[in-house]
From TrEMBL, chain A:
GO terms for cellular component: ESCRT II complex. It comes from Trichoderma guizhouense. It holds the Pfam family ESCRT-II. It comes from the Eukaryota. Coiled coil: none annotated. This is ESCRT-II complex subunit VPS25. Belongs to the VPS25 family.
UniProtKB/TrEMBL annotation, chain B:
GO terms for cellular component: ESCRT II complex. GO terms for biological process: protein transport to vacuole involved in ubiquitin-dependent protein catabolic process via the multivesicular body sorting pathway. The keyword Transport applies. Its main location: cytoplasm. Keywords: Cytoplasm, Endosome, Membrane, Protein transport, Transport. Belongs to the SNF8 family. Component of the endosomal sorting complex required for transport II (ESCRT-II). This is Vacuolar-sorting protein SNF8.
Length: 208, 260
């Protein structure tokens, strides 16, 4: 299990401090950073990039990236061989991941992310992208299991407690991105498993 | 024999002697063949005995298995041929008879894994995968404690896939590949694939200078290989584009990681 090193506040993006990520072989393959023209290969390339991005994000517990900043990070820029994936290509990979439910573009102006991202966000050029190495549904299941295990059904937890509290230390969602957590919680709300109340900065959740 | 006969009778005599030689020769041949046949029969039964006593080694030790297989093919016994009529007739291979199926199954199972790996990597390498890389990938997918596999095993397993048509072991330059698409490489294409082994990539200029081809020919071959998925283009070079063989991806990891 990913050892939760004291994870920085969730809004941090890129340039993480965790031990170095073991890059896969293709990361050292120069042509991997050029968009391939052959359709079959291009698809294989997208699949490999998608797997790489998710593994990288999982390793560093990245919940979102800013494309312009990430383009300079070692994820997309292999300085060793001086090859980089250009932002338009990054965007294409992320859009490929979006179709797979593994990424979501933050809509410009989307505040506290309850709204579903529009599928056109990719085209409209949002710079911030959520990376779902676990999909919101999977996060929801984890939270639900935690509540079940710790017999906290019926009680009220604050969102802060869920992500930063002592009790959740050691769970996977400890220190997770608030907005992604809200997406997960909203799924539970939709299923009638939870209820969210409170105001912007002191949200509480009651689980059923 | 005295002096050379003279007169008409000499013709007869020479005819007789040559006939005698011939009959003697054929009887010699017959006995020789018979001796060989018994030798082979003895050998076959010895082989069978050997295989039975060493069944475990054959199964578990890849180099021993390879040696044994080589010995079989040297005496003309194809251990994998699926119907061998002059032995017990049940349509089983020699392996199967000798070893109660397991070795035969070993190769068929290996073949299934090979088909899987080839299928999974076809999109990135166009259906041409290095033999040793393939072996490595197949070994990786096997259970802990499973018998190790040699290149020879892979070769043999691919051989069993021959009826499927598209699978074959091809040698390009000094490297062996397993081809999983029904496509033959043209001489030009093979030359380019071979060149790509050396540095990992080729470029139009490189081919032009080293093979003495004109630019159009270089471009055509590269385009063909690109279309077949056997080369990846790298446009981030300082000069002309380079075309990389995806096989490099398999080797690049170890020495590349140190540099970053």
């Amino acid at each position: 299990m990913a050892t939760t090193t004291t994870s920085p506040p969730p809004q941090s993006q890129s340039q993480p401090s965790s031990p170095s990520f073991p890059f896969p072989r293709e990361y050292f393959f120069p042509a991997f950073f050029t968009r391939q023209t052959n359709i079959t290969i291009h698809h294989a390339q997208l699949t490999k990039w998608s797997a790489l991005i998710l593994a990288y994000a999982r390793h560093h517990r990245l919940f979102r990236i800013t494309i312009s900043a990430a383009a300079e990070s070692d994820l997309f820029f292999n300085r060793g061989i001086d090859r980089r994936l250009n932002p338009p290509d990054i965007r294409e990979v992320l859009d490929f991941m979006r179709k797979d439910g593994r990424a979501e573009f933050l809509r410009p102006g989307e505040g506290n992310g309850a709204a579903d991202a529009s599928s056109s966000a990719a085209a409209s050029g949002g710079d911030v992208v959520f990376l779902y190495w676990r999909k919101p549904e999977e996060w929801a299941a984890l939270v639900e299991a935690f509540v079940e295990e710790t017999a906290q059904k019926g009680s009220v937890l604050t969102v802060y407690e869920l992500t930063e509290g002592e009790n959740t230390r050691g769970t996977e969602f400890h220190g997770m991105d608030n907005q992604v957590l809200m997406k997960a919680l909203n799924i539970l709300v939709k299923r009638g498993k939870a209820q969210i109340f409170g105001s912007e900065d002191s949200l509480g959740v009651k689980f059923f | 024999m005295s002096r050379k006969g003279v007169g008409i009778a000499a013709f007869d005599r020479s005819r007789i002697t040559s006939r005698q030689f011939a009959s003697h020769g054929s009887s010699l041949r017959a006995t020789n063949a018979q001796a060989l046949e018994t030798q082979l029969a003895v050998f076959r039964s010895l082989l069978q005995q050997f295989a039975q006593t060493h069944a475990k080694d054959i199964r578990s030790d890849p180099s021993f298995r390879a040696q044994f297989a080589r010995m079989c093919s040297a005496i003309g016994v194809d251990p994998l041929a699926s119907s061998n009529n002059h032995s017990s007739g049940s349509g089983n291979s020699v392996w199967a008879q000798l070893l109660g199926k397991t070795v035969n199954d070993f190769y068929f199972e290996l073949a299934v894994r090979i088909v899987e790996v080839c299928g999974a990597t076809r999109a990135e390498n166009g259906g041409l995968i290095g033999l040793s890389e393939l072996r490595e990938r197949v070994s990786k997918g096997r259970m802990e404690g499973a018998d190790s596999i040699s290149d020879d095993d892979v070769r043999r397993a691919v051989e069993t896939l021959k009826p499927l048509g598209s699978y074959a072991v091809v040698t390009v330059g000094r490297k062996e590949y397993v081809r999983s698409v029904p496509r033959e490489l043209s001489t030009d294409q093979a030359a380019v694939v071979e060149a790509a082994q050396v540095l990992g990539y080729v470029s139009v200029g490189m081919l032009r200078d080293n093979l003495g081809w004109d630019e159009a020919r270089c471009k055509t071959v590269i385009d063909d290989l690109m279309a077949g998925g056997m080369l990846w283009v790298d446009k981030q070079t300082k000069g002309e584009w380079e075309y990389w063989s995806p096989g490099v991806m398999a080797d690049a990891g170890t020495d590349g990681e140190a540099g970053v």
